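User: Show me sequence and structure for the first protein, then do the same for the second.

Assistant: Starting with the first protein.
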Amino acid sequence: MTRVRTIVIITLILLGILTAPTTSLFTHPAQAQQARDVPANQWDDRLSVSSTTKCAVNSDNSVWCWSDPPEKDDIHYVPTPLYSKVPEKIEGIEAKAVSASIDSVCTIALDNELWCWGTKNGTENDDKPTITAPKKVGMQVKKVQLINGKVQVIDTNDNVWEWGLEHADQAMQYRKKIPSIKVKDIHTSGSTSCAVDLGNKVWCWGNNQDGILGSYEPEHSDSPILIHGITAQKVAVGRSACALDTAGEVFCWGDNYFGQLGSDTPGSTAIPTKVEKLPADVTDITTDDNTNCVLNASGNSWCWGKFRDDLGETTDINHPEIPRKSTLPSAQLLRIEDKACIADKAGYTWCTKDYHRLISPGDPHDFSMKKIENIRLTSSFSD
């Protein structure tokens, strides 16, 4: 009888263990992964387009880069591009995000470690530059961007750090923490940066050209300044700043020389101004220095600001502030550096064949989209 009672007690104890709520001690790795802060658009950082070097993270997490430099008559011509025009696989790296500048690249590995590489000091006689091997920086990050001489990251504790591109793989020695804010999205033009904090407020710092810091004073601020009157889910910064707010509407402020504020009010403004005549289901926003574009849930794009005929008949030259539907194919992602590049719904990447800035009215050009070899971000964006 005692033996039977012992068996019953042991059985009940085991059942209690098996049916008890799961604790962190027994959390499955998949559950731990799900607990991490995943961006709203998990594919947003898998395609990076600079004026020369472009990189993508494929569906198998491999990193591929290619160079597509402007011709010699363009001011952005680079005699020694980093890669060839056919995408090359970067060996030894599996990543979930990538950012490319003219001559440097950084990726976020699957374990959130930051890796960077690029060229050694410039070479003479147009020789192909020496590319350094990818190097672990020693930081765990959620987001990285390289632009105009600057590296900027959001670490896994939601802090913002930045350092000069000349020290791209030496962050621990040269990095500077941006004070006072915890953020979930960030974008920079190189001279000015804006971020969305964990409460959806927008903060900007850096050079204060045309009121882009939300007021006309000071001329420069190293500390973030709150942009009043707006809550946002995403920001994009060029010569002006734009934010996609939590209601799906777009507001812009700063320089308006090319109508990039989407407002017929002349001159710049430090007050976020709603961009009218956009679809109600905007999901993403992107910018170059003087042109802004949005995507809606159907993959269609609208653009305004400085005229770019590679985007189709997107702007009325007499009224550049009025958003016009572009003739670009339906897309899941859109990037508008010197070329327009998209990722289609099947995950394939396409870029316009010619650079828009090289073309003068009447010059021959080809703005048709060319599929990029070896690149597929995902088997399907519906996955």
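Switching to the second protein now.
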Amino acid sequence: MEINQIEPYISEREAVAVQEYLNSGGWLTEFKKTQEFEQRIAEYVGAKYATVVPSGTVALYLSLLSTGIGHGDIVAVPNYTMIGTINAVKWTGAEPLICDVDPTTLCIDINNLKESVNTLKAIIHVSINGRSGDMYDVVNYCKNNCIILIEDSAQAMGSQFDDKFLGTFGDLGVYSLTPHKIITTGQGGVIVTNNIEYFDRIKSLKDFSRVKPGVDIHNGIGYNFKFTDLQSVVGIEQIKTINYRVNRKKELFSIYYDRLKHINQIQFLETDLTQVTPWAIDVIFESEEVRNDIVKYLLSEGIGTRIFYPALNSQMPYSYFKQGSFPESESIVNRGLWLPSSIGLSDKDVIFICNKIINIHPRSIIMNININKCWQPLIIN
């Protein structure tokens, strides 16, 4: 028996829809099915406008460009995020400002930005695994200081704060459609906004800066960042079942938590499942050694896991940010692990995984070690 850390959840619905589309003589490229997919996403999250592009990183890049960000601007990003977040900033010619994270949410800690507030043009707020922290604090901070807020909600489709979907608090929001996300089209990204000027700029930029679709007159240097109808056919079927997908992710998290919460060296971040849809089952270990022991043991049992992203300042392109300057993120990334999180996992599969972790060698688990008390219990209302 082999269990991957995560894999896409594809049903017969997608296969049937793709075959029907191919039989219909569709042109495959971005057209009516893409428009339908975009409309469904906008309606689901409650945004006025949505457009889809080849990736989440491209979505961030276009979002930044649409607000006028470029050479000489400074954009704050968290030290714990997928590298695409900061790469998008560099593509614009702007300079990223890396900031440490709040250890209770793993999101950017805006308290670390006070000394830089007068030079910041934008903040990219990354909602890690569906958790956002208090979005009203972030929004008010940006409004009071005339800072553009872009939400990187790549891991947060289906998650909310105060019953409002993440990705819709900022000037623009971005989601990812890669195979391991809540819904997938293989690759892809989504941009949502309520600002028609930003939306129109993005629609033009993604299509060679045409003055209007289908007309070969261009008012700038644009890109070929269009989507495809073939992907959109898959996406439409995926989003039709998003409520099931969201609920199943929450069920998986609950099973893991109920089974593993008593183990001294495994800690769960505070997670309000009435609002948060965990993209993956993330846990924090007491030490890097314990985490690595468990990774090796589970792999030997045919169970896949994935360690957290490295801190950005540990990545070669961004190593000019001093090591040791971001204690929270630098510590967490060395102790964090994603457990198997596929929507298609059965309850029996999850219990099997949990039992393997519980029964691991005593040196790795059954030790009475004092844990950093910043980790809070799960909240399920």
